[in-house]
Specification:
The complex is a heterotrimer of chains A (about 230), B (about 290) and C (about 260).
Chain A: E1 2-13, E2 19-31, E3 36-40, H1 47-55, E4 62-67, E5 70-71, H2 77-86, E6 88-91, H3 103-113, H4 118-131, H5 148-160, E7 166-170, H6 178-193, E8 197-201, H7 205-211, E9 214-217
Parallel strand pairs in A: 3-8, 3-9, 6-7, 7-8
Antiparallel strand pairs in A: 1-2, 1-4, 4-5
Chain B: H1 14-29, E1 35-36, H2 50-59, E2 65-70, H3 77-90, E3 93-94, E4 103-107, E5 120-124, H4 138-146, H5 151-164, E6 175-177, E7 181-183, E8 202-207, E9 212-216, E10 222-224, E11 251-255, E12 262-266, H6 269-277
Parallel strand pairs in B: 2-3, 2-4, 4-5, 5-8
Antiparallel strand pairs in B: 1-9, 6-7, 6-10, 8-9, 11-12
Chain C: H1 3-6, E1 13-22, E2 25-35, E3 40-44, H2 51-58, E4 66-73, E5 76-79, H3 85-94, E6 96-99, H4 103-106, H5 113-123, H6 129-142, H7 159-171, E7 177-181, H8 189-206, E8 209-214, H9 217-223, E9 226-231, E10 234-240, H10 241-246, H11 251-258
Parallel strand pairs in C: 3-8, 3-9, 6-7, 7-8
Antiparallel strand pairs in C: 1-2, 1-4, 4-5, 9-10
Helix pairs in contact in C: 5-6, 5-7, 6-7
Classes of the chains: A alpha/beta (about 230), B alpha/beta (about 290), C alpha/beta (about 260).
Chain lengths: ~230, ~290, ~260
């Protein structure tokens, strides 16, 4: 489902004397449907960078990123947007929302953009919010005022409201208490069971052990300073 | 022997008349289209009918019989002045009878008596541009006419209905000519609008200050703008003429004393006088002196 | 119909080598891109970058000196630069919409809100007062203006309401392409947020394509799928919005992004 071949990336900081910082070279990995791959490596080794490249947020310098039959590294913006709407989901570490939109709308939005009727979309959003223990009285409020843990759960709800065939999860259980952590892990296991290909970054070792079928250490892709 | 104080026929020099006639021909060829022309200085200020006078002057021939009316009346100051002006400068015969005139210059009314082929009706026009009060820019209004972009005209009618519950325009009511140009028929009451279309006479419109001439050739379609659910109605005061009893002519309301008594009289003086001469008497009228002969 | 279904192969707007010069100075130069149905393109840059000139050329307000602007009309792709003025104006009344930065430039201040919204309908032949008024009231509701203000003049509205009215006036005929020039410029921050919500919703519901010129990067992040960065009249970088903002390649883009104040 997700296949990365010979991927490399460097950053060129023009405003700092055109310093070139190579961060990745020759990265390869593959994830099959129903598989969960964990990215490991020291902090700053490129785990989030790799995830962002798969998402299309960062440009690749060379190589290919196949998600289904779309090569994200070479795709046109509208193809990536279409991919993000229906095929590829991303739960980042931070909740980025339009101000003042109620939580239930935030969570329902991925379904609305896919053309799901409004009431059905909201119903599914509400079911997920309930499952993640977000109290009903918060559903009509903007999540920008929530606690870190609540925001994270809203983020996760938005990422799971549509059954994406491919999922990118960046620290999904961070800031969660035990009860909610368990809910999230169950959600991820359910996604695996329905055949989603998942790439995740987990600092939470027991979660990693429970969910990941394989681990890939990204330090092997980090160019060594000559 | 030329007299230094003598006027050229109908006051204007021949070259000017040529220029105006060319504009008139263009107007007749494109019904409802405002043709710019070089308006001349006339011996009356702007706002007193200089456009109409120039069109009449360009049309007159010595054999013409001229009638001049102002708000339907032959005997108001303006009508009298203009009629005298043409008697002096053109020496043409004049008349008050609509049916006997060959050229009729009018301010703000169409005569009640139906016109016939061969007659010319010349209107005095203050503001020729129907869109002017909504769109002050001349550059924009010209574009709108050119591109038939008339949405704004209906906006005006919409505003009327939303504000007054009905289309409140009582005069100067815009018409669409031959399905193409929207035209301002001059401040005639909307009661007169139906007479614009299918008229046997040639109708010419002259605006002196604004320097535009436009025309409706005989039997031209001129449809008053309206909405499907608010159709155009040619309304008038719900009264008959108090002098001649006519039920379907446009009426002037005259206050007769300080207690607010009023009477309604035909605005078209010739029409009213003819009816009275034929023996018709209204509620407040006395039999006409000539009635006994009929 | 979902957005995915709307993304056909045929671009809605194809721009090639678009250039406009003011004597020796460059307004915009060599601009080229394709815009597909349902896509929102943001154009950012500082004052003098050429973005407003570009928008004016695209919308037919300015004649470019070079280049093509090919729009997928009802009769097939046509170069709007070569079109007769009448045809271009008809396009501007039906398939296109233009939202001005200052709502007073895009509204008739002397006409009621209902009249403003109804004008485009009347311009394309609507002749039933009741239906026109009904459509106007409906649209006022969609832009969150109370129905009882339908007969008020825009001069009685706040800046945010005027801008929303301008949007209603433009969208009532269901255009396919909307040009927006700094749509939130001059509005308070909270009013901006409300307007952006509204625009996002309408773009999604109506499957609109839009080209938004702005100097505010937050607006493009929220509204635009794609981003073009302009400097000195040239496009220096373009791509997916979040990619251009998070992983800028060009020196100028990097400078622009790093200059944004974090609140």
């Amino acid at each position: 489902m997700i296949t990365i071949s010979n991927l490399s990336k460097s950053f060129t900081l023009h405003n700092q004397g055109a310093a070139v910082i190579p961060v990745m070279a020759g990265a390869n990995l593959a994830v099959a449907p129903g598989e969960c791959l964990g990215l490991v490596g020291a902090s700053g080794s490129g785990k989030s960078t790799l995830m962002r490249m798969i998402w299309g947020n960062y440009l690749a310098a060379a190589g290919s990123i196949m998600v289904g039959d779309v090569d994200v590294a070479k795709a046109a913006p509208r193809e990536i947007i279409a991919l993000r709407r229906g095929t590829l989901g991303y739960v980042s570490q931070f909740l980025r929302v339009v101000p003042r939109v109620p939580t239930v709308e935030v969570v329902a939005e991925p379904l609305l953009t896919l053309g799901v009727p409004a009431d059905e979309a909201r119903a599914r959003a509400m079911a997920l919010l309930a499952q993640l223990n977000i109290p009903e009285r918060l559903w009509s409020l903007s999540p920008t005022t929530f606690s870190g843990g609540e925001q994270q759960r809203v983020n996760i709800a938005r990422g799971f409201v549509h059954p994406y065939p491919a999922l990118l999860l960046d620290e999904p259980t961070a800031s969660l208490d035990l009860v909610n952590r368990e809910v999230v892990l169950t959600l991820i296991e359910a996604a695996k069971a329905r055949g989603a290909a998942i790439i995740g970054i987990f600092h939470d070792e027991p979660a990693r052990a429970r969910l990941c079928d394989r681990l890939v250490d990204v330090t092997q892709f980090t160019p060594k300073v000559a | 022997m030329t007299d230094q104080t003598a006027y050229n026929f109908a006051y204007l020099d021949e070259q000017t008349k040529r220029m105006i006639r060319r504009a008139i021909l263009k107007g007749v060829a494109i019904p409802g289209y405002q043709v710019p022309f070089a308006s001349r200085e006339m011996p009356m200020p702007y706002g007193w009918g200089t456009g109409g006078v120039q069109v009449t002057a360009a049309c007159l021939v010595p054999e013409d019989r001229l009638k001049v009316i102002d708000q339907g009346a032959d005997d108001t100051t303006n009508a009298v002045s203009i009629r005298r002006f043409f008697q002096r400068t053109a020496g043409v015969a004049v008349t008050e009878a609509t049916a006997e005139a060959t050229v009729i210059q009018t301010r703000h009314r169409i005569p009640e008596t139906p016109l016939t082929e061969g007659q010319i009706l010349v209107y005095q026009v203050p503001i020729p541009e129907p869109l002017r009060f909504l769109e002050p820019r001349e550059t924009e209004t010209r574009k709108m006419h050119e591109l038939e972009d008339y949405g704004l005209m209906h906006v005006k009618l919409y505003e009327d209905i939303s504000r007054h519950g009905q289309i409140a325009t009582a005069y100067d009511y815009p018409v669409k000519v031959e399905g193409r140009y929207v035209m301002d028929p001059s401040p005639i009451p909307k009661f007169d609008n139906p007479k614009l279309g299918g008229n046997a006479a040639i109708q010419l419109f002259g605006a002196g200050r604004e320097q535009r001439i436009y025309a409706l050739p005989p039997y031209t379609q001129a449809i008053s703008l309206d909405f499907d659910d608010y159709p155009f109605t040619a309304s008038k005061a719900d009264h008959a003429c108090d002098l001649c009893g006519a039920p379907d002519s446009y009426l002037d309301e005259v206050i007769t004393d300080d207690q607010g008594s009023r009477m309604f009289v035909c605005s078209d003086t010739d029409f009213c006088a003819s009816r009275r001469a034929a023996g018709h008497v209204g509620p407040m009228g006395a039999p006409s002196a000539g009635a006994a002969e009929e | 119909m979902s957005i995915l279904a709307k993304m056909k192969m045929q671009p809605l707007l194809s721009v090639r080598d678009l250039s406009k010069f003011y004597g020796g100075r460059i307004g915009c130069a060599d601009v080229g891109f394709d815009l597909y149905p349902g896509e929102v393109l943001g154009v950012v840059g500082e004052s003098g970058s050429g973005k407003s000139t570009l928008l004016s050329c695209l919308a037919g307000h300015l004649a470019p000196d070079r280049g093509e602007v090919i729009f997928d009309t009802q009769e097939g792709p046509r170069d709007t630069v070569q079109m007769a003025e009448a045809a271009r104006r008809r396009l501007a009344r039906t398939d296109w919409a233009y939202v001005h930065q200052n709502p007073r430039d895009g509204l008739r201040m002397g006409v009621s809100a209902g009249g403003n919204v109804g004008e485009r309908l009347m311009a394309v032949g609507a002749r039933h007062y009741g239906q026109i008024r009904g459509a106007a009231v409906d649209w006022l509701g969609r832009v969150e203006i109370a129905a009882d203000r339908v007969d008020d003049r825009p001069s009685a509205f706040s800046g945010g309401m005027q801008q929303r009215l301008q949007i209603a006036r433009n969208l009532v005929t269901g255009p396919r392409l909307v040009f927006m020039d700094e749509p939130t410029g001059g509005l308070d921050v909270s009013v901006q947020a409300r307007l952006l919500d509204l625009l996002r919703g309408l773009v999604r519901e109506m499957g609109l394509s839009a080209i938004i010129v702005t100097h505010d990067l937050a607006v493009v992040r929220l509204l635009a799928d794609r981003l073009m960065v302009m400097k000195g009249g040239y496009v220096v970088e373009q791509g997916l919005t979040d990619q251009v903002l998070d992983d800028p390649q060009h020196a100028y883009t990097q400078l622009l992004v790093s200059s944004v104040l974090q609140v």
